[in-house]
Amino acid sequence: MAVEPVKYLLVYVLTLLLAVSEVFPLSVSAMLGALLMAWFGLNDGLFTYEEIFSFIDLRLIALLIGVMITVETVGRSGLFRVLGLYAVKLAGGSPAWLFVALSVISAATSLFLSDAAAVLILSATALAISRELGYDPTPFVVASALMINLGGTGTLIGSVSNMIIGLNAGFDFVEFAAYLLPCELMLWWVTIALLYLYYRERLRASPRLLGEYRVRVENKGEVAKAALILTVMIALYVSSERLGIPAEAVALFTAVLALTSTRYDPVEIFERIDWDTVFFVASFLVLVHGLERTGILQALSQLIYEASRGSLAYATLLTLLVSGVTSMFLANVAVALTFVPPLKALNLPDKRPLWSALVLGTNLGGASIPVTSVVFAMAVGALRHEGLRVDMGELSKVGLLTSLAQLAFSALYLLAYFKLPF
Amino acid sequence: MGAERIVDKKFKRFEERYKEERGLVEESLGRPHISLSVEMPEGCEGLEEEFKSLSQDKEFMSELRDLVKKHLERKGREKSGSR
Lengths: 422, 83
Known about the structure:
The structure holds two protein chains of two kinds.
Chain A: H1 6-21, H2 26-44, H3 49-55, H4 58-76, H5 79-91, H6 95-112, H7 115-133, H8 137-150, H9 160-169, H10 173-199, H11 220-243, H12 247-261, H13 266-271, H14 275-294, H15 296-307, H16 312-329, H17 332-345, H18 352-364, H19 374-385, H20 392-417
Helix pairs in contact in A: 1-2, 1-14, 2-14, 4-9, 4-11, 4-12, 5-6, 5-7, 6-7, 6-8, 7-8, 7-19, 8-10, 8-19, 9-17, 9-18, 10-20, 11-12, 14-17, 15-17, 16-17, 16-18, 16-20, 17-18, 18-20
Chain B: H1 3-12, H2 15-28, H3 48-52, H4 58-81
């Protein structure tokens, strides 16, 4: 049945505007969009009532919730706080080494924890240590937030957008890491070098001694259990393809293992799950699949094909650029969900570079501006909470410069890694 | 909505968890830490904004630290005197 696609496109744009303007939380904006999409779609006979529920990918939702339960339980043990404080201790009192140590531990923590949980731990650590030593906390906290956004770019469970893209691309944990982890690790050092250059004047304080600073570990048993759960989780993900276990099954198994082997109250763990993101993903899937039925996303696919003149190299660079730039201003989860149908429909023989470009674009564009990035906003909020003055324009400049440099490096990486001819 | 207000709104959702984490970091560094909930005193009507921003007021926080120190020193003297 032929339908007028304009109103569906308007519903999509309205949803994004509501989400960006913070009129409603992300989840509520997407729920409203999904409701309008369902109303118009049912009236126009675009899909049936039963089909609406089939739009919600239960495998993806299971993967999201499983990973969230596991990282919340592991995070609660204090394992990453302890590791962060030890890393800082190893760096001694030098501001430059402290900057590098905090940056590395931020990215490494984000490989295992959600970005929100990681930024809470690392902002608190950066502020406590830099204040103790009398250093300007801003470079440490900003670098930590940007490195947390970067951390996890190369793993299937490193971010929500990665889980969306990885499942749709059919990448298992090892395959995903093989394409993207080398790029992430190189980007760690590119980013640290850039940020150090930018902040070098503010990091020129005389080194001070950290004093009698001993890291206290109150609940050693829980910290050990958390480390064991993480080890089991990684081992299972790495061997999941060989064992024939899907990623969402590993996530749910690890969640149950975490809940049953630790002493935390499951109700408290469930309360801290990022339900806003879960409901946003479920509702936005309805919106995107509805839009797909109108033919708009196929038109976008055709547009990408024509703009790249059928060249895989151009299509990869275009995907990286468009997804990266749109993720600077919109929720990167929404960008990932929107790009999946057009990329699936693209008539190109090898789509691995395109999926990899989408992963890099949505992750790296995700922390450019404090106003649109939750991670960046939380770090800036922590600085303001401590009574520090922040210049939003300057922070946006740092974020944008970092994202653009990371995207440029990623473009070179993709061309070289997949040996893409023009 | 201004940029700072949007950032504050996003941070607000995580503020309690941040305070909790900040306290845990201080504890791990061997510095015990407490969080207090203080109601606005009576007779201060019209000063809600000033009251809510006290935790970011450096002068107030310094006075509060002095008060805590004096109080603890007195407690310490009482404790050693009673032995």
